[in-house]
């Protein structure tokens, strides 16, 4: 990685560390954009520590994002936006609803499933929360769910956006730690499904406790008849995720190539179906550019900060402090999980990955944790932060869609948080969950 050629100096941390940290916290509290706060903190740390000439910061900003793998990020974002504009996302909902019609609380389960389907294409949680929320929240309320709970259900389901491959988060952590994104995608399949199942189970339990949604009284012949109708009218929507998964996991396409292919196929299908016109392109491109414009600057400014942290010995210092508290692997793993969940509560995933991955990875190596398992654990723990205050990005998205109070939505999200935490701990302590599908060389 970019900082691996540097020789870290194990020194006692002083104001060259604490000063920039305080500056970052102050700027974030003042609502300064995260990328600007990170850039200011990195510059101050480099100047005070003398670790790297400030004149090189500009070069690092460009060299850090000059990576082919990052091209996949805007492509998956654009694919997700194209799915919404072509109406293909509604076909996912129709199929998901047909699949779950036999169960009590079927539409709630369908909402979670369609979040997972959308996640398997867009790789973005916020985009999934917005797209699925527009389609389902009003219908969930009509089905009997309280509006705050309906919002919490969508927010929780949308967390799978960064947990189910292809995920932008795995592309970024792969870039940071020098691990193939395709390998991480394969490793994330079982953990991502486990999180999805935990959200489904939570909704089923809550629905049975409160009796919000009825249904489920349907014969087998009628069930399969409705399912056939839904699949017949919407099977073509699944061409896009099949291309992405088959292309990446067969090794025929890189994530970037899979993203580009998915964009083209989605747009072509939109024109064939008559749901997309050339006049839709400007708005679609601007919308995707705005999302991408949030992610890329954060990555660019986080890299000089990560280098500065490495040079002044923060990763080594963290390992020393952690192992000084306990040398038991299970305790150290719990510490890492708690740090990641706390970080996910107050900061967006991208800066957390770029800053914390190089700090926590040495500790994971120190206790013999598989590096793939570490990456899956990290992204899953950070994913919980999307529905936990004070940041809770998905909470803000669904609140913006509905006007519902963020605090009310957060209160209803507590059961989902608890179930997701349980799965996160399983991933942290059971390596097989992350490595079962991997070739032997990665185990």
TrEMBL record:
**One cellular component (GO) term of this entry:** plasma membrane
TRAP C4-dicarboxylate transport system permease DctM subunit domain location: 22-433
What are the entry keywords?
A: Cell inner membrane, Cell membrane, Membrane, Transmembrane, Transmembrane helix, Transport
User: What domain of life?
Assistant: Bacteria
Q: How does it sit in the membrane?
A: Multi-pass membrane protein
Residue intervals passing through the bilayer:
21-49, 61-84, 149-179, 185-206, 227-248, 260-279, 291-312, 332-360, 372-393, 413-438
Q: Does the keyword Membrane apply?
A: yes
In alphabetical order, the GO MF annotations are: transmembrane transporter activity
Keyword Cell inner membrane in the entry? The reply is yes
Task: Note the Pfam families from the entry.
Answer: DctM (PF06808)
Q: Which residues does UniProt assign to the signal peptide?
A: none
Its subcellular locations are:
Cell inner membrane
What function does the entry list?
A: Part of the tripartite ATP-independent periplasmic (TRAP) transport system.
Question: Would you identify the family this protein belongs to, as annotated?
Answer: Belongs to the TRAP transporter large permease family.
Summary of subunit composition and partner proteins = The complex comprises the extracytoplasmic solute receptor protein and the two transmembrane proteins.
Q: What is this protein called?
A: TRAP transporter large permease protein
The protein's organism comes out as: Roseibium hamelinense
């Amino acid at each position: 990685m970019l900082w691996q050629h540097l020789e870290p100096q194990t020194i006692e941390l002083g104001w060259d560390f604490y000063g920039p940290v305080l500056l970052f916290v102050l700027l974030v509290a003042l609502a300064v954009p995260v990328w600007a706060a990170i850039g200011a903190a990195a510059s101050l740390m480099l100047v005070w520590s003398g670790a790297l000439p400030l004149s090189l910061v500009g070069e690092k900003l460009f060299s850090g994002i000059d990576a082919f793998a990052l091209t996949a990020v805007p492509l998956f974002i654009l694919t997700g936006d194209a799915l919404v504009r072509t109406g293909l996302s509604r076909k996912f909902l129709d199929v998901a609803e047909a699949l779950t019609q036999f169960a009590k609380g079927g539409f709630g389960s369908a909402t979670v499933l369609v979040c997972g389907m959308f996640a398997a294409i867009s790789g973005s949680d916020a985009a999934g929360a917005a797209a699925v929320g527009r389609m389902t929240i009003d219908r969930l309320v009509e089905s009997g769910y309280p509006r705050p709970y309906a919002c919490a259900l969508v927010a929780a389901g949308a967390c799978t956006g960064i947990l189910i491959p292809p995920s932008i988060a795995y592309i970024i952590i792969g870039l940071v730690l020098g691990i193939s994104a395709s390998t991480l995608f394969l490793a994330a399949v079982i953990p991502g499904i486990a999180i999805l199942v935990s959200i489904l189970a939570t909704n089923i339990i809550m629905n049975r406790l409160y009796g919000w949604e009825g249904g489920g009284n349907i014969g087998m012949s009628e069930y399969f008849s409705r399912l056939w109708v839904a699949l017949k009218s919407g099977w073509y929507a699944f061409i896009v995720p099949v291309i992405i998964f088959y292309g990446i996991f067969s090794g025929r396409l890189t994530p970037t190539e899979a993203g580009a292919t998915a964009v083209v196929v989605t747009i072509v299908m939109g024109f064939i179906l008559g749901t997309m016109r050339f006049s839709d392109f400007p708005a679609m491109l601007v919308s995707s550019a705005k999302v991408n414009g949030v992610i890329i600057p954060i990555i660019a400014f986080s890299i000089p900060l990560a280098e500065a942290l490495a040079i002044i010995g923060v990763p080594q210092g963290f390992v020393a402090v952690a192992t000084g508290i306990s040398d038991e692997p299970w305790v150290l793993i719990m510490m890492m999980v708690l740090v990641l969940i706390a970080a996910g509560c107050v900061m967006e995933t991208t800066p957390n990955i770029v800053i914390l991955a190089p700090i926590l990875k040495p500790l994971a190596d120190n206790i013999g944790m598989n590096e793939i398992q570490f990456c899956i654990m990290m992204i899953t723990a950070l994913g919980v932060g999307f529905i936990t205050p004070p940041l809770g990005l998905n909470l803000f998205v669904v609140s913006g869609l509905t006007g519902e109070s963020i605090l009310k939505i957060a209160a209803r999200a507590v059961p989902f948080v608890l179930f997701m935490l349980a799965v996160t701990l399983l991933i942290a302590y059971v390596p097989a969950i992350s490595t079962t599908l991997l070739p032997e060389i990665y185990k």
